[in-house]
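Researcher: Can you fold this with succinic acid in place?
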Amino acid sequence: MTKRYELNELIRSDNFIDGKWVVSAGGKRFDVTDPATGKVIAQVADSHAADARAATDAAARAFPAWRDTLPKDRAAVLHRWHALMVENADALGRLISLEQGKPFAEGRGEVMYGASYVAWFADEATRIYGDIIPQQQRGKRMSAIKEPIGIVAAITPWNFPLAMIARKIAPALAAGCTVVGKPAEDTPLTALALVMLAHEAGVPAGVLNLISASRDNAVPAVADWLADSRVRKITFTGSTPVGKYLARESAGTLKKLSLELGGNAPFIVFDDADVDAAVTGLLAAKFRNGGQTCVCPNRVYVQSGVYERFADLLTTRVAALKVAPATDPAAQIGPMINARAIDKIARHVDDAVSRGARVLTGGKRLPELGPTYYAPTVLADATPEMQLSCEETFGPVVPLFRFDDEAQAIHAANDTPFGLASYFYSQDVRRIDRVARQLEAGIVGINEGALASEAAPFGGVKESGYGREGSKYGLDDYLSIKYLCQGGLE
Ligand code: SIN
């Protein structure tokens, strides 16, 4: 029977290396705090290069045996891990809320979302096919087989403490790779709990290793992986500057990279859109995790004919959103992750207002709730000169830009170095086809605000990175193709 844990039983504070919980080599720890209150939840290992190295050593020892397991046996382990995640969805959801701040319903939703990738890749493990290449010369047989790439280093962000690491570890293990990982310093507890469940599911010692590190020590720890030729792949979700650093620093050992980086998603509402549906879609896309999602719309372009109506409907719905701690069952938006995050949001709104934006609702911090709360905000009359037009705000702020024609909207939407998600609403079939093809983004939502699915390829273009997570394509990033040419057959 699958074991159900209490929340406190899931809280781990040491590194997990070679199947054991171990203190960091330097014996140091750092605080993990509740973003709603600043209260310390746990003190976890503050790892350095020596810990990263120990994790790699374990992953290297474990690789040959894990690579050679039957795919159906790897699948069985992943299915058991999935079952444990589902069985413990309440406790894991509460842990996510506690260290990340999202309301419990969203935290639990994230557990199920992350678990869906584990189930998906469990099945995909048994479908890693190669090819027999049609014969080119007599006496020669040519084929292509797929092999696990080797040790994978997974580096994950704080905004989805469970889903982001699950959707990296699951395909890596399914492919036959071993893993070393480091979660974000703000939210290591969920990842540590997940690793504990993976161990219980039967992931062998050394196959999955996780270390935590403070902001200061993250660089030396990760640098060890970047320089180590045994680590063959880096998979990272986070900011574009860090993604570029990883690409630069791993070039010395030419690792394969999957980089899911920052976005600056446009959301376009054409005059021919179903305006009610567009408002509902925007709410779903924008306010998930309080706007702290790489695929959250950051710039909302509304055509002149529906601008006022859209702004009115949106303002009414946004003003009704309930901001409260994650522990409040009615909460729809929790605290932002930390002081840096809330300062950036306030800076973006202040800059926009100083350049002529009108606050339709929100536009302020909520000190009565705590220092990390910001009111859901709608700003009218946004312009391209404003900081929030060029930078991801990563908070509950919707700037409305007015446009007159389709070409203008497409130009504005694409006028960014980023290209992760984009969204548009229209009921004209010809326009839908045209606009979907012209948007420079890895993901396009058409009359839909909720895009995430384990069955879909998630990833960006331009400076939003490369590689895809989820779907039948998601496994390719963890495999290399080997060409076999057998001669002397005649
Ligand atoms: C992200 O913020 O990286 C994306 C989360 C998701 O929609 O899966």
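Model: Folded with succinic acid in place. The chain is about 40% helix and 20% strand.
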